[in-house]
């Protein structure tokens, strides 16, 4: 039986070209990560992120989060016969044993805190288990690749508070200066929920070899992103082959036990070979044919993430 833990998707805030929110996106067939698209017999755990657009700050950011959160909990109740919110690795295993899919609540964008450190406890009580510190722009904590600014003084205080309340810090989207600053204040393992290797694809959103080695040393977790622009600099490439090359590069750097999946479903343009849950399962067989072992692939598809959750949640 195949098992999958996916560290990131934007399905909760999936929208069409007119920015009209889908009703019940977790089970809307228009979405990449409609839970009904998971192949029969596959145990699936999905981390569902509240994507915080850079246009929202302060009270507007709080209101946006609260609206999406309310919709998320309503869907959990509506589809409770087949989907359950999980806060720990043990919760995920229990959901699978019941024949249900697992959902982990996360947030993409530290603007959710609105510069108020007391809100860390608030979102922790909501069940948020991962906070992606920034998106592309700058917020009260730090900045994405739109600037080269590092952490604010507020940001340096936020990281220990997140660790105290059991919320895992996510460095995906954090710029290089911010990553360096994080190393000075983080005392627990952190994640890059949806980032690839910059040595294979040069986009600034990807991790440098130095970053990867540091994350291995700290027993962190890295989710492979399916977005075409983060897989290859060449849009005419063989994306399956390039995805394989990213995996091999991570393994060469000693990150075989730190790799996971971080699709970015419903938040990015995806290649056909990774465009749906079914294609992700097919990719397992392709990677097996390319020479990766079942042990390596089981680690990437769920094992490393499950161990990380058990150790850090």
Proportion of helical residues: 25-40%
Elements, N to C (H/E): EEHEHEHEHEHEHEHHEHH
Radius of gyration: 18 Å
Q: What is the count of DSSP helices, taking H or I runs of 4+ residues?
A: 10
Structural class: alpha/beta
> What is the first-to-last residue Cα distance?
25 Å
Sequence stretches where pLDDT stays below 50 over 5 or more residues: none
Morphology: globular
List the helices and strands and how they pair.
Elements lengths: L2 E7 L33 E9 L7 H20 L4 E3 L3 H9 L3 E8 L10 H7 L4 E3 L20 H12 L3 E3 L5 H10 L5 E2 L16 H9 L3 E4 L3 H4 L7 H14 L6 E3 L15 H13 L4 H19 L1
Task: Explain what this protein looks like in three dimensions.
By secondary structure, the chain is of the alpha/beta class. It is 37% helix and 13% strand. It is built from 10 helices and 9 strands. The protein has helices at 59-78, 89-97, 119-125, 153-164, 176-185, 209-217, 228-231, 239-252, 277-289, 294-312; strands at 3-9, 43-51, 83-85, 101-108, 130-132, 168-170, 191-192, 221-224, 259-261. The strands form 2 sheets. Strands 1, 2, 3, 4, 5 and 6 form a 6-stranded parallel sheet that branches. Strands 7-8-9 form a 3-stranded parallel sheet. The longest helix is centred in the N-terminal third of the chain and has 20 residues, at 59-78. It starts with a strand and ends with a helix.
